[in-house]
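Subject: design request, 328 residues
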């Protein structure tokens, strides 16, 4: 039996669909004990457990032979939060402990490229790294680095685990709204008239899921694999969107970086007080300015991983949002 945490998320729900399609016996671990609405039609079992409840996590994992751990909080906030640490770090620790206790044959943990140490421009970001949260900027990056370190500590205790590091995920079945998906929707709906210079490494959710399955079947115990796609500037990203969705008004004004950082810090602070999620934060802006040279060479050579062109992913995302009436 294969247990999946985080099945309501973008990667998680696409992974569930793929495993069911392949005829696997799948169990979802969810907070509510019910299937996500968009997976209601699938024949899967459900076990109720919240990641902050170690006893419930232990009971949910009991009897599973393989665990895909994807559940977590994705955040572009610059500020640390107790919930982020409890779910991303301590929740992962509970999963690791349960997998060891119940003799799970393999744990496939979905980390993030942001858990990897940053490198200067011209250098290559690789999987060979020490995971030191104190050296990273951004609460999300720090929690994913610490969680990754906890998984590797589990490997030292005998756990068979493989770690995957996806870059910026996009593509269809984006029910909860990924960061890249939110960008597509907001610009396609003419909600954001401004932009900043920057670039990111985008990857299709379907390719990430394929990478997770390859890691399960071919990954080496204790190893990590970057699952990246293609580096693309925001300007290129919007040019492709405009060519695919002519009704869209391209952002007219570019905000200078110092102004963007100052504005983001102010807006983020206000949004934190009123509990509203901002689209741009200091952390997000710094990510878009950072080195995103993170090739998936290791995954390609050892697993047979490959990624489709970003243009195709943007087109498929746009079509999915239109079909689901999320873009006018």
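Subject: RE: design request

Done. Sequence follows.
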């Amino acid at each position: 039996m294969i247990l999946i945490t985080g099945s309501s998320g973008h990667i998680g729900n696409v992974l569930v669909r793929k495993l069911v399609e392949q005829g696997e016996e799948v169990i979802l671990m969810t907070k509510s004990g019910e299937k996500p609405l968009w997976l209601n039609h699938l024949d899967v079992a459900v076990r109720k457990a919240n990641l902050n409840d170690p006893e419930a996590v232990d009971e949910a994992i009991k009897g599973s032979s393989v665990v895909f751990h994807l559940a977590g909080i994705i955040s572009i906030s610059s500020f640390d939060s107790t919930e982020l640490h409890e779910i991303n770090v301590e929740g992962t620790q509970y999963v690791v402990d349960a997998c060891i206790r119940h003799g799970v044959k393999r744990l496939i943990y979905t980390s993030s490229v942001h858990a990897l140490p940053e490198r200067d421009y011209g250098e290559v970001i690789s999987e060979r790294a020490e995971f030191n949260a104190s050296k990273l900027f951004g609460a999300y990056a720090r929690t994913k680095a610490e969680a990754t370190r906890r998984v590797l500590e589990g490997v030292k205790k005998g756990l068979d685990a493989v770690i995957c590091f996806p870059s910026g995920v996009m593509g269809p079945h984006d029910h909860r709204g990924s960061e890249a998906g939110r960008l597509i929707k907001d610009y396609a709906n003419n909600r954001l008239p401004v932009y900043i210079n920057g670039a990111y490494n985008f990857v299709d959710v379907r390719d990430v899921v394929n990478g997770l399955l390859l890691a399960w079947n071919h990954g080496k115990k204790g190893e990590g694999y970057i699952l990246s796609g293609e580096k693309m500037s925001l300007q290129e990203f919007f040019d492709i969107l405009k060519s695919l969705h002519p009704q869209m008004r391209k952002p007219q004004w570019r905000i200078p970086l110092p102004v963007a950082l100052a504005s983001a810090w102010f807006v983020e602070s206000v949004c934190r007080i009123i509990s509203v999620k901002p689209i741009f934060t200091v952390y997000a802006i710094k990510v878009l300015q950072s080195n995103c040279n993170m090739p998936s060479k290791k995954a390609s050579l050892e697993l047979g991983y490959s990624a489709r062109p970003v243009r195709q992913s943007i087109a498929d995302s746009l079509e999915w949002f239109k079909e689901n009436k999320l873009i006018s």
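The longest strand covers residues 161-166.
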